[in-house]
């Protein structure tokens, strides 16, 4: 994924230092020349007014044009309208099929598929997960989400595979697509809901298309990776047999890339699911809508009841596709036929018994006990806890001692010095190109006229990343040392990673009050699992020989960790930082819903008021911020995954 | 090979653009609507509980008395206008006044029609908790607010008093008001009504003073009694220039709006929704059941419907 990889010669630290010094020297030189010029022209530390472009007029114009022409202009009648219709038709077809199969049929067919692709254990897990969705009283919303997901994932896979095919077969396409995919992946989904809504209106078509933008890149990337990584020996052998280019592709390259393709599918599914909830803000329906509506009545229990099916779907789909990618179970034809027959029999039996709807008597109300637990927690932890103080006091202190100084400090820095710091960081860790991208992205924020809110958001991101890294590294070290702890941790991380953020927005407000502190807390919860996973894996992959030899030299556990494990796991740690930053940014923005303010609030405002100028400018600034943060932390060797 | 791909693509594009004819962007319901083949209505629900109460009762009656299937879409007011115009939803039951949208969709494009009043009058204002107003009666006049700025300070308000605002979808002039009335306050946006309610409840539990943007009718008043702070009196047109506002918010009779096609061809459902009209007390009763007693909207609606038959009989066509 790392588009421009600096070949940092790790073996030559002296040279590295020299190169770093040279880079910094060059930057200093540029600063000495440019800063006085800039200072003379635009005095003051804030972003100069003269360098901003006010897009309010044109953007409002565009928005008005779309609204006025949406029902009559050929572009809409003959293009977007058909796209929209096609999406609605597909989703409806899948939804009706799922309803017709009934709960017994859907569960049986899902379990059957899981069994064929991933074995008996996954089949039992799948069946249990579907039954649990029904038990929670969420059968119909689950089917709506599933229908939406099926269409969105198929579309994402089609788009992603096409792009990946192009990038895998042509070097030029690869170079052209890389920055596009990079950008698509650092885009926080929240930022581009508004333009999609404006064109397609609220509802399912907009939700599906926003999901495709979000979920297609991993498929494209992994397809390209798989095609490029095909064994040259095999390809030559196939070529020597006289195969045409197309035959080579179909018979050799694609089958050889199977593992990568399935990993791509897996990643696409996970991202599409996480989008299913965010898309509820634009009326996508399904489980996400239930979570969002529960949020409106401050009903954590109901939000959890709708959130759990999402977690279950995510875990099941993740495990099944991952197991299928690892090879799965090769089957005989007879097994397929019998099992499929059994699944269909169950479906038909369910239908004949007139039991296609989930029976209402079989539902479990978890909302009430959960709400009681949350009430107790907030009542006893919010304030007045002896010695340590309540969560509200912590939040207050965190705001006053960490967030405020950080924000004020960033705002106090003259704008050109912020650009210089960005340039230096990005150049030290990457190449001059990454540095240039980062600086241009940061400058674009200034030009858009949202310098101050962007730095406010940045201060929240920095604080949240710092907390995430401290907690994440500590947990990862423990997980890397103890297998048992890691096994215990795994389901917890699964839940944190797949639980929709909307579910814990209210508990964090109840604990930390309204403001930036709950936004930071929510971001930490969301980003922690990825950081822990990547770091723990990196620490475990450290060469056992190096560990052994250090132990034989008499190093203690701590010395071993500091002097051998951590340095050797440096690439993994850098990746963890990078992923942490990207994920934190995504949630800090949603923090606009709980008082995080800054860019996140502007995006929500734009969506709520249909104000394209505010929403889109803030969205663009978030994208720039994401690009900048990504480039500044982009490790030289990054894996092709988002969200680990 | 290349030319053939090109031809196929061109043919496909041609088919897509001309062959299938025009696609009407205004004729797209949700794919989940009316799945059982029944006649259906799609209602928009706004994030606040009062709006949920309207929809819950309308939905219950449409389903149980008139035999419709009702789908709901969660969406904020302004996008709801857009959705109404496109026919994605059929009705918006509680609108707090959006002159720009009225001009555009009702007057110019004629895709939306007014469905009559809801019977409830809405009012936005600044509120302090009643326990605090009792201790300091003079806080209820805006001229004395500066005196209490210290008491209302929070970590988020940066040394000034905190005026807590809610969801970005709400109608608010508070930033301009604070500036134009030269108050020593900082507007802090809670970002969503849920966050705002949670914070108000936490403050109330500890009997802490706070100043908040709030509105009536609202069920929370029964849990946390609040007293309105007097702002300079509202006069017609004093809020015309958003930057120069220095007066209180008006009292707004809340309106219903229907998609124009639905209003014309919507049969009994449209007739029913036009007649739907209840009081602030009714709405609050249902809201409180939903938000505080944690009944599902359907249960709350059933309870209300069971005990108010004379009211809703009159709405049926």
From TrEMBL, chain A:
GO cellular component: ATP-binding cassette (ABC) transporter complex
Listed transmembrane segments: 93-115, 122-140, 146-169, 190-216, 268-287, 294-316, 336-354, 410-429, 435-454, 461-482, 502-528, 572-600, 612-629
Biological processes, Gene Ontology terms: choline transport; glycine betaine transport
Signal peptide (from-to): none
Keyword hit for Transport: yes
Domain ABC transmembrane type-1 residue range list: 142-321, 454-633
InterPro entries, per the entry: MetI-like, MetI-like_sf
Family assignment from sequence similarity: Belongs to the binding-protein-dependent transport system permease family.
Protein's recorded name: Glycine/betaine ABC transporter permease
Species of origin: Streptomyces cadmiisoli
Organism taxonomic ancestry: Bacteria, Bacillati, Actinomycetota, Actinomycetes, Kitasatosporales
UniProtKB/TrEMBL annotation, chain B:
GO cellular component, one term: ATP-binding cassette (ABC) transporter complex
Signal peptide: 1-22
Any one GO MF annotation of this record: transmembrane transporter activity
Top-rank lineage group of the source organism: Bacteria
Domain ABC-type glycine betaine transport system substrate-binding: 39-306
Keyword entries, A-Z: Signal
UniProt-listed InterPro entries: ABC_Gly_betaine_transp_sub-bd
Protein name: Glycine/betaine ABC transporter substrate-binding protein
């Amino acid at each position: 994924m790392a588009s421009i990889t600096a070949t940092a010669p790790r073996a030559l630290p002296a040279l590295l230092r020299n190169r770093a010094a040279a880079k910094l020297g060059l930057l200093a030189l540029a600063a000495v020349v440019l800063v006085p010029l800039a200072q003379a022209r635009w005095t003051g530390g804030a972003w100069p007014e003269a360098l901003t472009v006010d897009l309010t007029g044109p953007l409002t114009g565009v928005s008005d044009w779309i609204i006025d022409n949406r029902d009559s202009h050929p572009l809409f009648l003959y293009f977007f309208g058909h796209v929209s219709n096609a999406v609605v038709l597909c989703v409806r077809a899948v939804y009706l099929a799922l309803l017709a199969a009934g709960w017994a049929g859907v569960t049986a067919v899902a379990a059957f598929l899981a069994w064929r692709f991933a074995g008996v254990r996954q089949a039992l897990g799948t069946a249990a997960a579907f039954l649990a969705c029904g038990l929670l009283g969420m059968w119909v919303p689950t089917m709506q989400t599933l229908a939406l997901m099926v269409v969105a994932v198929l579309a994402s896979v089609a788009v992603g595979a096409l792009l990946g095919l192009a990038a895998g077969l042509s070097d030029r396409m690869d170079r052209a697509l890389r920055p596009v995919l990079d950008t698509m992946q650092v885009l926080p989904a929240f930022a581009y809901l508004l333009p999609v809504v404006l064109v397609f209106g609220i509802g399912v078509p907009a939700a599906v298309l926003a999901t495709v933008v979000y979920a297609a890149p991993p498929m494209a990337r992994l397809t390209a990776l798989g095609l490029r990584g095909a064994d040259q020996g095999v390809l030559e052998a196939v070529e020597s047999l006289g195969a045409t280019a197309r035959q080579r592709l179909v018979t050799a390259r694609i089958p050889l890339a199977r593992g990568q393709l399935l990993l791509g599918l897996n990643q696409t599914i996970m991202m599409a699911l996480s989008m299913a909830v965010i898309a509820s803000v634009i009326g996508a329906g399904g489980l996400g809508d239930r979570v969002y509506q529960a949020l409106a009545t401050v009903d954590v229990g109901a939000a959890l009841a709708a959130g759990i099916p999402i977690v279950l779907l995510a875990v099941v789909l993740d495990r099944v596709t991952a197991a299928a990618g690892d090879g799965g179970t090769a089957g005989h034809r007879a097994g397929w036929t019998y099992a499929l027959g059994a699944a269909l029999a169950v479906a038909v039996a369910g239908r004949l018994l007139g039991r296609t709807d989930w029976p209402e008597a079989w539902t479990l109300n978890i909302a009430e006990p959960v709400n009681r637990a949350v009430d107790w927690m907030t009542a006893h932890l919010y304030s007045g806890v002896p010695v340590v103080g309540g969560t509200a006091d912590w939040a207050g202190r965190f705001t006053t001692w960490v967030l405020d100084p950080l924000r004020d400090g960033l705002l106090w820095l003259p704008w050109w010095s912020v650009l210089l710091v960005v340039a230096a960081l990005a150049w030290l860790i990457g190449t001059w190109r990454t540095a240039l991208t980062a600086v241009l992205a940061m400058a674009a924020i200034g030009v858009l006229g949202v310098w101050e809110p962007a730095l406010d958001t940045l201060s929240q991101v920095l604080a949240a990343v710092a907390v995430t890294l401290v907690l994440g590294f500590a947990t990862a070290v423990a997980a890397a040392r103890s297998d048992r702890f890691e096994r215990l941790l795994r389901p917890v991380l699964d839940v944190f990673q797949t639980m929709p953020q909307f579910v814990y927005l209210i508990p964090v407000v109840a604990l930390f009050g309204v403001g930036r502190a709950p936004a930071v807390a929510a971001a930490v919860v969301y980003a922690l699992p990825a950081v822990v996973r990547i770091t723990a894996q990196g620490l475990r992959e450290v060469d056992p020989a190096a560990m052994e030899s250090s132990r034989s030299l008499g190093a203690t556990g701590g010395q071993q960790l500091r002097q051998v494990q951590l340095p050797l796991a440096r690439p993994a740690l850098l990746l963890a930082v990078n992923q942490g930053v990207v994920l934190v940014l995504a949630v800090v923005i949603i923090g606009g819903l709980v008082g995080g303010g800054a860019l996140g609030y502007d995006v929500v405002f734009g969506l709520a008021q249909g104000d394209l100028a505010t929403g889109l400018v803030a969205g663009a600034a978030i994208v720039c911020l994401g690009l900048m943060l990504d480039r500044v932390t982009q490790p030289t060797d990054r894996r092709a995954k988002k969200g680990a | 090979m290349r030319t053939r791909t090109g031809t196929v693509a061109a043919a496909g594009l041609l088919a897509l653009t001309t062959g299938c004819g025009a696609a009407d962007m205004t004729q797209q319901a949700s794919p989940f609507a009316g799945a059982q083949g029944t006649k259906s209505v799609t209602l928009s629900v706004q994030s606040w509980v009062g709006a949920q109460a309207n929809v819950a009762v309308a939905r219950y009656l449409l389903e149980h008395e008139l035999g419709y299937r009702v789908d709901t879409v969660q969406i904020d007011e302004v996008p709801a206008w857009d959705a109404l115009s496109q026919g994605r939803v059929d009705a918006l039951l509680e609108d707090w006044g959006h002159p720009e949208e009225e001009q555009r969709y009702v007057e110019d494009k004629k895709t939306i029609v007014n469905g009559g009043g809801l019977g409830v009058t809405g009012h936005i204002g600044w509120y302090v908790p009643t326990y605090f107003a009792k201790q300091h009666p003079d806080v209820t006049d805006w001229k004395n607010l500066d005196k209490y700025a210290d008491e209302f300070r929070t970590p988020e308000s940066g040394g000034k008093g905190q005026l807590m605002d809610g969801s970005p979808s709400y109608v608010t002039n508070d930033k301009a008001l604070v500036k134009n009335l030269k108050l020593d306050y900082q507007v802090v946006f809670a970002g969503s009504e849920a966050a705002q309610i949670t914070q108000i409840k936490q403050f109330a539990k500890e009997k802490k003073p706070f100043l908040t943007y709030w509105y009536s009718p609202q069920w929370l008043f029964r849990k946390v009694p609040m007293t309105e702070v007097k702002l300079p009196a509202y006069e017609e047109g004093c809020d015309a220039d958003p930057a120069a506002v220095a007066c209180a918010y008006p009292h707004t009779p809340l309106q219903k709006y229907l998609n124009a096609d639905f209003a014309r061809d919507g049969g009994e459902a449209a007739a029913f929704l036009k007649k739907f009209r209840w009081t602030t007390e009714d709405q609050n009763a249902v809201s409180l059941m939903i938000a505080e007693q944690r009944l599902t909207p359907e249960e709350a609606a059933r309870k209300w419907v069971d005990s108010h038959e004379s009211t809703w009989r009159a709405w049926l066509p």
